[in-house]
Amino acid sequence: MRRFLTPEDLGDLRKALDEARYVKANPFADQDLGRNKTLLLIFFNSSLRTRLSSQRAATNMGMNVIVLDINKDGWKLESEYGVVMDGDKPEHIREAVPVMGQYADIIGVRSFADFVDRDKDYKEHILNQFIELSGRPVISLESATRHPLQAFADLITVEEYKTKPRPKVVMTWAPHPRALPQAVPNSFVEWMKKADVELVMTCPKGYELAPEFMEGLTYEPDQDKALAGADFVYAKNWSSYHEYGQILSKDRSWTVDENKMALTNNAKFMHCLPVRRNMIVSDEVIEGPNSIVIPEAANRVVSMQVVLKRMLQSMK
Ligand code: CP
């Protein structure tokens, strides 16, 4: 396994979920695989969960870990080809990435969409340079278009909490004061479409995802109708794809509160975190008995550990 960006990179999802169960029950069973191997985590953007869960997963596997906040602690990187580098960026990504590859066995990269150029973001301009130039297996720690470790952890969590073979899972847009990327909703629908769930997505008009993620997705513009009978409510904000990076609405009637949850089948509430309370979700819902945001975050260790295990096995 040389890269982790989509569910296809993991192969059979049933097998991956079995492996997740095993890893969760036996977190230190594979330390021989990771001994004398180094994971390098590169952050172009902030993180709490991804950073800590990746470090924890790697140490569970017996690996060494190096973390670099590249914008704080590294040279500012130029990523465009053919640029005369007479500005404020003293190093080019085409040297920096192969150098990083000399110091690690596996590289994780977090690099968000910057909303300047949609095509560039959706071509994964930064992540693909790591895949092309590092010479190492590369894990997306959330890229411009996807957050696969989160989506895999979300799937593990749904599997753990479902009370019927095919639960109804509703992903709802909710308001937020800042423009957020589409990576989490893109990955969530990408992974859930492959799972044994009834998936419904609801958002205001104008917030439809990119065509490749909308394909085969049940879309219901009326949030109340979408929530009816839901077994899981997955709330998330994202900015517009079609009016790229724009905030089209801050309508707080979309906030997930107790009235919204009352429409559901006693649904579990999920969010990837961090979450803006009383914008995305009310205090009562996120602290209520059906909120599973903490075990969902805990499963980030499990999703990363399965990915690391696969990569380490393929190096043997
Ligand atoms: N959910 C998630 O990826 O959290 P962080 O941004 O804190 O890593």
Automatic annotation (TrEMBL):
Carbamoyl phosphate binds at S47, L48, R49, T50, W75, R110, H147, P148, L149, Q150, C272, L273, R300. It catalyses: N(2)-succinyl-L-ornithine + carbamoyl phosphate = N(2)-succinyl-L-citrulline + phosphate + H(+). Keywords: Amino-acid biosynthesis, Arginine biosynthesis, Transferase. It holds the Pfam family OTCace. One of its GO terms (molecular function) is amino acid binding. N(2)-succinyl-L-ornithine binds at E142, H176, K236, R276. Catalyzes the transfer of the carbamoyl group from carbamoyl phosphate to the delta-amino group of N(2)-succinyl-L-ornithine to produce N(2)-succinyl-L-citrulline. Is essential for arginine biosynthesis. This is N-succinylornithine carbamoyltransferase.
